[in-house]
Q: What sequence folds into this?
C-alpha cells in the first residue's frame, strides 16, 4: 500500500479553493489531520461541533442587547470568513438542515456568505476554506447529507493509521515502552476485526492511548485495557467477554 | 434534438409577468441559468436557499430593536419586491408550508405582497419576477408542493448539458485539456446511466469540474476521480466499486 | 343546466348574516367570485391565506413594543370586524385548530369577537361577513374541518366554468384568438377527465391562461402547453406522457 | 317521555356548588342552555372556546409590559372567579392537559385558585360555578378526559330537542311558516337516522335554521337544503346523494 | 384487617426526614390524608398539580422584569424549602422528566436545592418534607417513574375507605340520612367490582358524595346516581347500562 | 475477589487528566464514591443532574438582563472549568444531544471550552476533571451514548457493595443493630437475584437504609420492608407478592 496522499490532496484543494469532506470512523485522526494542515498552511482553525440544536444563527451570528444597544456578534462561520480561516464543521450530519443549507453559497464558485439579518454580503477571501467531517459508519435513515450538499465537496477517506505509525503514536502520547505500545496496537487490530460481531464502532487510537496512560501510571495492563477499552466500547456482556479474551491473549501474564 | 429554448421561454414569462419554476436534478445548471438570465435582463437577483426552519418572517422581514426603537427590516422577498428584482427561492419544497403560502398573492394576477406586521400592501413593479427551483428526483411523500402552489408557475425542465457543451464547461472551468475533459464527461455519462443501481442523484457537472481541478493540480486522474466523484456520490461500497470500475475504464492507464 | 345561482345565494346569506363556505378545486374561481361579490356589495375584502403556522394571534392581533410603549396592533380578522369588511380565510383546513376555534363566536347568532389580550368584546356590525374556502379534493385524514366548525356555514359548491365561459376568459386574459382559446379549453376538459389516472388536481383555468400567454408571446402551442400545463401538473412520467398525447391531439400541427 | 329536568338539576348543582359537565353532540343546545341558565341565575357568563394551543396562562392570566411597568392581566378563568361568574370551558378535551389540571383545585371542596405567578390564592365566592362541555361523539384515543378530571363533575346529557320544540325553534329563528319548519325538522330526523351510514355528526338544529333562513330569502327549499344542510354535512358523494334523496322526499315539489 | 397505620408511618418518615410517595386510585383520599397530616404536624402545605407542561422553572422560580429591574420570584418548591413546608407534587408522573430530576438532590441525605439561575444553594430545614402522589392504575408505557426516582421514597398504599367509614363520610358531607348513605356506599362497592368490565377507574368517594348532595337537594335517587355517577364514569353505552342496572338494584323504588 | 481499585484508578485518571465514566445501577454508590474522591483530592464538586430539557446554555451559561445591562452568567460547566473543579454530569444519557457534544472539546487533549456567545476560549486548568455517570440497565434504543462520546472516557464499573460493607453502611446510617442490618442486606441480595423476574432495577442500598430507619422508629420490620422496599420497587402485584414472600423468609416472626 503506497504512502497516503492526504497532505497533497488537501493542499491541492486549498489552492483550488475547493471545500473538503473528511470521511471516516471516530478516532481515525480526521481532527488531528486538520489541525496539522491548518498549522502547515499557516491558517487559523475555527471548529464547530455540530449537534441537533445548532441553528443557522449559531453559525452566522446574532444580535445581542448590550448597554441598551443592539450589537451584532459574528458566529464562528462568519468569523472564519472574515479572517480567512479554515472553518471545520465536525459531524455535519448531526446539524439541522438549515445549517447545511447555510453553507451552500460558500461552496459554489461565488464563495459568498449573505447575512440576511445585517444585510451584509461577505465574499470569502482566498485563504478561507470550508471543511466538514462525516462518519459513514453510524448514519441513520433520518440523518444523512442530501446529494445537493454532498456533491459540493472533495472527499478524503480516513481509516486508522497503519500499525507502525499507530505504535509510534501510542508510545509517544502515553509514555509506555514500544513493546507495550505494540501489544496495545495489536489488541486494537484484533478488536477492529470484531466489527461485525456487534460493535457499533471499532476501538479508536485514543482508547489505546488511554490504556497506555493508565499502564504508565502503574495500573496492571489487563485492568487498564478493561477500564479504557472494554468498558467504553460496549455494554453487551457477550461482546465485553470477547474483548477481554482478546486482552488476555495479548497480555498473557 | 433542437437547441433548447430556455432563454426565449424565460423572456416570454418575464414579459408576461408569469412566475417560473425551474425543475431538474442537482447540478443541471438551474442556478447558473438564472444568474445568466438576471444579467441578461439587467435585474438584480435575490437568492434564498430554502430549508426546514425558514419562516415567513425570514422572507418578509421583522422588527428589530435598535437604539431603543423598534425598526422594521425587510426580508429578502420584500426587498426584491421593492426594488423590482428577480427573487429566487431555491429548493422551495424544503421550506415550511407557510413560506409557500406567503408567495401566493405574488403569483396571481394582482401581484401583491401584504406585510401583516406593518400593515403595508406592496404592489410588485413590472420588473419583479418570482422564480422557484424544484428537484423532482428526491422529493419524499411528506415534502411536496401542493397543487394550489404548483399550478401558479410556468415550469422549465432542466437536464444535464449536452456532451459537447459539458466538455467545454469542464475544460474551461478546470483548466484541463479537451481530451481529459472529454473523458470526464464520458465518465459522468456512464455514472448517470447507473442511476437505477442505487444512486440517489447522478454525478453533477460540478463534480466533473472538481475532478478536473485536482487533475490540473497534478493529482493522478484515477485518484482525482475517486476523491471528487466516487467518494462524494455514495457511501455504499458496492456502488462505489462500480463507479471506480467505470473510472478505470475511462482512464485505463 | 340552468344558470348558477351563486350570486343570489351569496346575497341571501349576506342579508341574513350567515357565514359562507366556498367549496371546490383549485382554480375553480372561488377567490375570483369572492372578489366580485365584495365589489358588488361594496364592502372591503380582507384575505388571509391560512397555513400550518398561522396562530390565533396572527388573526386577532398582538402587542408590539414601539417607542418604549406596548401598542396593540389589530390582526386581519379583528380589523375586518371593526370596519365591517368581508373576511376571507382561504384554505381554512391548513390552519391550526386554534384558528378554527377563534371564529366560532363570530359564526353563531351573537357574532362577537372577544380579544382576551385586551379585554375587548367586539360585536360585529351587520356589514361584517365571514367566508372560508375549502378544497375537498386533497384533504388528508389529519387535516379536516371538525363537524362543529363545518356546520356553522352555508356551503356553495364551485366547479370549473362552463366551456363557453372558460373560452371567453382564456381569450380575454391571454390575448389569443378564440380558436386557440377553444382548443386550450378543450385540452383542459380532456385533462380533467384524466382525474382518476393519478392526477392530484385537474388543470385549472389559470394554467390555460398561462399557456395562452406563452402562445401569444410566440412560443409554439405544443411547447407552451408543455411548459404551462404538463410540467406544472405532474412529475410522474406516465401522467406527463398522457398529457402530452392530449396536447398533440388538440394541437395536431 | 317526561319533561326533562335539566333546569332543576343545574339549579341543585349551583346551590350545592358542584361543577357541571354538559355532554352531547354539536348543536344539541348545550351552549344555548347555559346562556339561559346564566340569565336565570343572574350571573355573568365567561366562555372560553378550548383548543390545542390554549395554555394555562391563557386561562389564568399573564404579565404584560405597559408603560415600562409589568402589569398582571387576569385571564378569563381568574376573572370569572373574582367576579363570581359562571365560567364555561367549551369542548374541554381540545385543550392541553395543563388546562385540565389547572381547574382541579377549583373543583374540590376548597374551591381555590392559586396564581403561581403572582403568589395569590383566590377562594371562589359561592356564586362562582365551573361548567365544561364534552362531545362523546368524536373523541379520539389521544384526546380524552382523564378519570381524575371527569369524576369531579355532575354530568347532564343533552340530545336534540323533541320535534315539537324543534319546529318552534326553526320557525321562530328563521321566519318560515310552521309547515316548512315541520318539514325541515322531519328532514333533520331522517338525516339523524343516517348516523351509522358514515356521517360524523348528525345535522344540528342550527343547520335547519340556516336552511329556513335561505328559504325565507326566496331560495327554493330543495336548493336551500342542499346549500345549508347537505354540503356542510359531508364531502362524501354517496352520503351527499343519500341526503339529497331525503330532501326530495320531504320537499317533493 | 387491623386499623391502618398511615399516620404512624407518616410521622416516622417525617421524623426521619424521609420523602414519602402516596400510591392509590383517584378519590382514595390521598390528598385528604395529606391535608390532615400537615394540620397534625403543624406545617404549611404547598401543593403543585403536575402536568405535561410543568417546567423546572415553574417549580424553582424565575426572573421577572418589574419596574425595569429583574427580580427573582421563588417557585412553589423553593418557597416550601425556604419556609420548611410540606411540598406535595400531585400526580408526579404527569410532569416532564426535568421536574422529576429537580427533586433528586432534595431526596438524598444532603437535602439540598441548587438554584442554577441565582447561584443559591439552599439546605432544606428539618421541617421540610417532600411528598408525591402516584396512581398506578392508569400509567402508560411512556409515563412512568424511573427506578432512580421511585427508589427515593417510602411508599404508603391507599385504597378506598372501609365501608363503615365511607358511609360516615358520605352522610356527613352530603347531608343525606345514614340509610341513603349506606346504599350509595353499597352502590360504590358494586361498581368497583365492575373494574374489569371496561371501567378505567372505579367510582370515587367524591362521586358518592355528589350523588348524596343531589338527593339531598330533592333529585330522585336514581336520577341523582345517573347524573353524578353513571355519566361521569363512562361514555360506553354498555358500561353505562350495567351501572344503571346496579343503581336500580340498590334503589329499587 | 480482590479488593477493588476504584480509588487508585480514579487517582491515575485524575493525574493523567483523563475524563472518567462511572457505570452501574442506581444506588450502587457512584455519587457517593465521587463525593469521597472530590474530598480526597481536595477539589470542589459541581454536580449537574441531566434531563431531557437540559440545554447547552444551561451548562455553559447565558446572558441575563439586570439593571438594564446584559450580564453573562456562567453555567455550572463553565464555572467548574474556571475554578478547576470536578464537574459531574449525572445520568448523561438523559440529556439532549447538544449537551453531549458540548463536552467533546473538554475531553480531547486540548481540554478547551469555547463559549460561542461571549467569544471566550477557556483552557481547563490541570485540576479540572470531567466525570459522567451512566446506568446501562435501563437505556432505551433512542437514548444511548454515541460511540464518538463514549470512547472519550475511562470507564469504572460499579456494583452494589460487598455484603459485609453493606451491613456496616445500613447499620451506621439507619441506627438499627447489626443483626437487623444483616437481615436487610440478606433481603437485598435475595431481591437482586429476582432481577430477571420482571424488576426494572434491583433494590438499592438506599432502600435498605430507609427500611432500617423505619424499623428504628418503631415500625414492625415486615411492615417497614413493605413500605420502604416492596412498594417503591414495583407496581406489579405478582412481583410484589414475591418480594413480600422474601421479606417473610428473612423476618419470620
A:
Amino acid at each position: 500500500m503506497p504512502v497516503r496522499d492526504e497532505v497533497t490532496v488537501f493542499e491541492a484543494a486549498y489552492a483550488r479553493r475547493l471545500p473538503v469532506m473528511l470521511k471516516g470512523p471516530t478516532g481515525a485522526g480526521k481532527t488531528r489531520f486538520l489541525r496539522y494542515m491548518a498549522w502547515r498552511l499557516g491558517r487559523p482553525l475555527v471548529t464547530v461541533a455540530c449537534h441537533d440544536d445548532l441553528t443557522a444563527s449559531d453559525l452566522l451570528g446574532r444580535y445581542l442587547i448590550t448597554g441598551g444597544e443592539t450589537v451584532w456578534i459574528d458566529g464562528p462561520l462568519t468569523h472564519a470568513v472574515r479572517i480567512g480561516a479554515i472553518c471545520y464543521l465536525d459531524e455535519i450530519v448531526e446539524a439541522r438542515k438549515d445549517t447545511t443549507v447555510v453553507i451552500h453559497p460558500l461552496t459554489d464558485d461565488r464563495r459568498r456568505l449573505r447575512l440576511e439579518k445585517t444585510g451584509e454580503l461577505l465574499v470569502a477571501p482566498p485563504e478561507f476554506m470550508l471543511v466538514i467531517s462525516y462518519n459513514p459508519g453510524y448514519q441513520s435513515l433520518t440523518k444523512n447529507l442530501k446529494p445537493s450538499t454532498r456533491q459540493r465537496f472533495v472527499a478524503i477517506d480516513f481509516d486508522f493509521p497503519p500499525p507502525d505509525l499507530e505504535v509510534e503514536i501510542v508510545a509517544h502520547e502515553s509514555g509506555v515502552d514500544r513493546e507495550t505500545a505494540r501489544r496495545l496496537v495489536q489488541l486494537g487490530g484484533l478488536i477492529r476485526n470484531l466489527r461485525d460481531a456487534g460493535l457499533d464502532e471499532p476501538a479508536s487510537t485514543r482508547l489505546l492511548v488511554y490504556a497506555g496512560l493508565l499502564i504508565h501510571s502503574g495500573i496492571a495492563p489487563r485492568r487498564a485495557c478493561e477500564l479504557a477499552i472494554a468498558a467504553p466500547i460496549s455494554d453487551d456482556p457477550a461482546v465485553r467477554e470477547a474483548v477481554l479474551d482478546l486482552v488476555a491473549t495479548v497480555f498473557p501474564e
Summary: The beta strands of chain F are 20-23, 45-49, 61-66, 69-74, 86-90, 112-115, 120-123, 129-134, 154-157. Chains F and C do not touch (no CB pair under 8 Å). The mean pLDDT of chain F is 84. DSSP finds twelve helices and nine strands in chain F.
